[in-house]
């Protein structure tokens, strides 16, 4: 007697085999039989007719920022209805829910107050955070990583300098504790402040505890375009971190941003292929749409303008000379690959009427420049 029989569906089994009609017999939490339609003889407590539908294993979404989402809404309908059954968050150097120490805690409070979500942190470390996630009882499987930007903010604030040996020890200690509490790996966002203030040596030291535990290093690399160090050196840096530490490397949202790099994506794949031949376990992921999506400060501000954190940035904006320099950078970021019509506001909780509109559209209405 089966518990569930799924019949008449088109099976895509995830092995790379072509889609084929199949029936699937399930007992408890295990698939016990896969056969051509009508060939499973056993009775089933529940039968699902999947005619005209595709049956697949659950999707693994390796790149998300749902760190707080499951604490706010554990049902996760938007993911479940897309077929996602495992999410990995804590990407791009941001594990903004833990550890909550120093400026990382301030950033968490700030983020929550601006999003309007009603969530109070009853924890300060990864162990407490993961317990809170477990207690929330999400409908899908979740896993998380320790963000370099978060740990750096916890120890150094938003200072644009290398950590002292003592600070680096403290960062490594926080990473080790978080991994031992259950984090699946570490992540960096080397394009974002404060990750962008680090040198490669620091990232290697940061990654080593993950490598020592056979865990993952994923990276939003230092540049995906022609800013900062540039796309190809940034790509090489991620691979070099794998070479030096032995960590498994995941290059996040692999892309070649801007006309200058269009048509050169194959060179990124070739670089990964060569590294794999050398024995470095490097892989990458991509999102299925031709846009980037990120926070305003990351997308629009020179990194120097973010030094010291949000309050310092606001002070700089209040000084007309410094404001003019910030504005030059912002103009560059708005216009480097398109213009203000290409910058669309995806989320702005204080005034949701702006969502879905371009910067140009809003500027026209307000009678200002983008
Ligand atoms: Zn990213």
Summarize this structure as a short list of keywords or feature phrases.
370 residues; alpha/beta; Urease, subunit C, domain 1; TIM Barrel; 3 domains; seven-stranded parallel beta sheet; five-stranded mixed beta sheet; 13 helices; 37% helix; globular; binds zinc ion
Overview of this protein structure:
The mean pLDDT is 94. The protein is built from 13 helices and 12 strands. Helix 5 (148-156) packs across helix 6 (165-181). 37% of the residues lie in helices and 18% in strands. It folds into 3 domains: 2-55, Urease, subunit C, domain 1 (Roll); 59-284, Metal-dependent hydrolases (TIM Barrel), CATH 3.20.20; 296-366, no CATH class. The protein has helices spanning 69-72, 77-80, 102-115, 126-136, 148-156, 165-181, 200-212, 231-245, 265-277, 296-300, 310-317, 320-335, 359-366, and strands at residues 2-11, 20-27, 30-35, 44-49, 54-55, 59-61, 84-89, 141-147, 185-189, 216-220, 248-251, 282-284. Strand 1 and strand 2 form a beta hairpin. The protein has 370 residues and is of the alpha/beta class. The longest helix is centred in the middle third of the chain and has 17 residues, at 165-181. The strands form 2 sheets. A 7-stranded parallel β-sheet has the order 6-7-8-9-10-11-12. Strands 1, 2, 3, 4 and 5 form a 5-stranded mixed β-sheet that branches. The N and C termini lie far apart (65 Å). Bound molecules: zinc ion. Residues 92, 189, 220, 252-253 line the site of zinc ion. Zinc ion binds next to loops.
